[in-house]
Write a structure and sequence with these properties.
By secondary structure, this protein is mostly helical. The chain is built from two helices and no strands.
Length: 56
Amino acid sequence: MKAIHKIIGVLFAVALMASCSANYHANKNGVPPGQAKKITGAKSAKAYAPGQQNKN
């Protein structure tokens, strides 16, 4: 009986950890704002941030 509880506990822990996921927000080009800033040589990443796109 103890073995069954251990197996169920391990399966529950694995299922709990497998359900976690990280969200990655990038602009429409798939490049984060800081990296887009580095690529273009701009001084600020503000223009590349998703919330700032409609101001242009």
